[in-house]
Structure formats: structure tokens, C-alpha cells
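Incident log, support desk, overnight shift.

02:14 A customer reports that sequence design results differ from what the structure should imply. Their input is reproduced verbatim below. On-call engineer (initials T.W.) acknowledged and began investigating.
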């Protein structure tokens, strides 16, 4: 019987385990933490597209959002969502995916960390037909087997008690919030407030919290977010990377659940049909990830006035913006530009020539773990 070892029992690793076990492989999943789903490091907002990949029980859904409001300086714009977006209880969702994998025959080993030095020895790898790294942004398998470390952004978030519109989440643009800030409501009296930034994410989050003096912080959390690069390597023989370990993340939003689980489908297909995993996932999500990369790169060069113009132009193209799918933005962006051609003024920011190695070197990388920390550990 063919066997597979998966390092990491997050939702992407567990989903890959489910798909591979369904094909008849003997699958062992190793997770260094004692409990699946902890610590929580994710905002938990996902598009409706995730339901196309896996059934999501109601117990895993904290809230459903139908509106978004974007702020930048004196400008703001409100949009209705084409389909409701879901706010997940990530701990519950992660455990749900793991249970689905167990039903298919996968075995989970919690509180056990694979010795990656052993994986470098040919004899060790030979005992397993497939070794899969789903061990997150700071993937040791990526470092040891592929000699690569991903550029990182830092996410910082606070769970707060405050009164808010339970159906509308808010996005804050501007350098003071890093790449962007957010307020995602869980209910009328509870919300998740945070930022994604290269540096000083925690202090930026504190700055965003100052806009909500009535907010009572329940707990804080944070973690690294890998940045996608087209040069990332994800397969070396029978060794694979998937999810955050492969930096299969939408750089403009920091989201990687839908893309990572889609890549897990490609991995399962590649294993079953003896095909190239890299070719399959690049075909499925490569263009979309590159589009998000370009958006993030352009907006990282914005001045405050540019952010305000972007919000103003988006408001004038409201019908086209409301039809956008942020998991598949490529075609939708063209329609938005046709609706508001002045958005083309930002095109020079996408210039390949203007993206220097110096700019990329300013992004903290995995070899600098001291640049982030978990401010209040999950209980």
C-alpha cells in the first residue's frame, strides 16, 4: 500500500489527508501542537467559494456578512456583497476537516514533531511514497528540502467586545494600518479588529483600536503570513509543499484557506495520476495568485492620496466592484477598470522594473522569526 506522511494538521493538511486517504493511501498526519485548531492565527473570514470544496456545518460559522465598507482618510465607500461571506470559528472548522480525514482512514499524531533532519536521509524518505509539508508559513520542510524561506507579513488581531453592525465588515486603507486594517463582526456585540503589516503590526493594531474607544479587548493574537512568489518551489520528487508552507496565499488579502485547499485537490490528483503537482496548481490558481501579488505590490507603493483616490474610483464603479470575486479577481478587475477607466492611473505601480530586489528585501523573511510574536497566547 502506498503511504503518505503529512506534516501539519491545519485545515489544508487535513484536507489533503482526507483526499489522499480516499484514494486508498495510508496517511499519517503529524501535528506538533497538542490540539487541532490551536493556536488560532486567522481572522476567519472566507468567501462562499469555500463551500464548493467542502461542506461547512453551521456550528463552524460564527457569522454571515452581506456588506463591506472601505475607509481611507476622508473617503469611504459601501458595497453589497454578491454572496454572503462567512466568518468561521477556525478551531471548530479545523477539527471538522480533521474528523472528515479520520473517517476516510487517515491517522493523526498530535504533540509529535517530525525530525526533518531524518527526511534528508534517503533511507527515511524511501519508507514513505509521499512526504507533504503543510507546516505553515515557517515551514521547516520548505527550508530543509527546498532551501527556501518565504517573505513574511505579520498579522495582529484583537477580539473585542463592542457594538457594531453584524452584517458589515470594515476595511481600513493607509500606511498607518500597514497593508490594511479590518473590523470583522462576530455578532452585534463582538468583533475581530486587526492589521496586516510588514513591521510593527502590533503597534499599528493598537492605533486602529484607538478609533474604537468603547472596545473592550478580550484577547489578542497574531502570526506570520507568507507572501506568494512565482518562483516558489513546491515539489521535489515525492516531497511536496501545500498551503502556507507553499506560500499559496492571496498577497492582497493574506487569505490562504481557499487557495491552499484548492492546491490540496491538485496534489491529490497529481499523486493519483502521477502528474506534475506544480503544473496542476499553477494552472488552477497561479494566475489568480499572481494577480493578488500585483495588487499588493502596487498598493504597497501608494501614498495616502492614492488610497483616497482608489476608494473614490471604486465607489463610482460600484456595480462592477460588487460583482467581484476576490478568490478569482482577474476577469473582474478588467470589468472594474472598464467601468472606471481612471483606475489606469495606478498602472505604473505594477511595473516589473520598479519592483526592485531592495523592495523585496524589506519584507521580513522566515529566517528572522524575532520580527513577530504571539502577544497573548490562545488559552
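02:41 Re-run completed on a clean worker. Output:
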Amino acid at each position: 500500500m502506498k503511504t503518505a506522511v503529512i506534516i501539519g494538521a491545519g485545515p489544508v493538511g487535513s484536507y489533503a489527508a482526507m483526499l489522499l486517504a480516499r484514494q486508498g493511501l495510508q496517511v499519517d498526519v503529524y501535528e506538533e501542537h497538542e490540539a487541532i485548531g490551536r493556536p488560532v492565527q486567522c481572522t476567519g473570514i472566507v468567501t462562499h467559494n469555500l463551500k464548493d470544496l467542502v461542506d461547512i456545518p453551521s456550528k463552524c460559522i460564527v457569522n454571515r456578512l452581506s456588506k463591506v465598507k472601505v475607509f481611507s482618510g476622508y473617503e469611504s465607500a459601501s458595497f453589497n456583497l454578491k454572496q454572503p461571506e462567512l466568518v468561521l470559528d477556525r478551531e471548530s472548522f479545523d477539527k471538522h476537516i480533521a474528523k472528515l480525514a479520520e473517517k476516510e482512514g487517515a491517522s493523526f499524531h498530535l504533540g509529535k514533531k517530525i525530525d526533518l533532519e531524518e527526511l534528508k536521509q534517503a533511507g527515511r524518505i524511501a519508507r514513505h511514497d509521499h512526504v507533504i509539508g503543510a507546516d505553515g508559513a515557517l515551514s521547516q520542510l520548505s527550508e530543509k528540502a527546498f532551501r527556501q524561506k518565504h517573505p513574511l507579513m505579520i498579522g495582529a488581531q484583537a477580539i473585542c467586545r463592542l457594538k457594531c453592525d453584524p452584517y458589515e465588515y470594515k476595511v481600513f486603507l493607509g500606511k498607518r494600518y500597514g497593508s490594511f486594517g479590518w473590523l470583522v463582526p462576530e455578532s452585534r456585540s463582538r468583533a475581530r479588529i486587526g492589521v496586516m503589516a510588514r513591521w510593527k503590526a502590533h503597534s499599528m493594531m493598537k492605533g486602529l483600536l484607538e478609533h474604537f474607544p468603547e472596545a473592550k479587548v478580550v484577547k489578542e493574537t497574531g502570526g506570520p503570513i507568507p507572501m506568494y512568489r512565482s518562483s516558489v518551489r513546491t515539489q521535489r520528487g515525492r516531497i511536496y509543499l501545500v498551503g502556507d508552507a507553499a506560500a499559496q496565499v492571496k498577497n492582497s488579502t493574506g487569505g490562504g484557506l481557499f487557495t491552499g485547499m484548492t492546491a490540496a485537490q491538485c496534489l491529490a490528483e497529481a499523486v493519483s495520476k502521477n502528474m506534475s503537482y506544480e503544473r496542476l496548481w499553477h494552472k488552477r490558481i497561479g494566475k489568480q495568485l499572481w494577480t493578488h501579488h500585483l495588487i499588493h505590490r502596487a498598493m504597497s507603493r501608494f501614498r495616502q492620496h492614492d488610497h483616497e483616490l482608489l476608494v473614490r474610483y471604486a465607489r463610482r464603479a460600484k456595480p462592477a466592484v460588487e460583482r467581484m470575486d476576490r478568490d478569482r479577481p482577474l476577469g473582474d478587475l478588467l470589468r472594474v477598470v472598464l467601468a472606471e477607466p481612471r483606475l489606469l492611473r495606478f498602472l505604473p505601480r505594477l511595473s516589473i522594473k520598479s519592483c526592485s530586489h531592495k523592495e523585496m528585501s524589506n519584507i521580513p523573511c522566515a529566517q528572522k522569526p524575532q520580527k513577530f510574536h504571539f502577544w497573548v497566547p490562545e488559552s
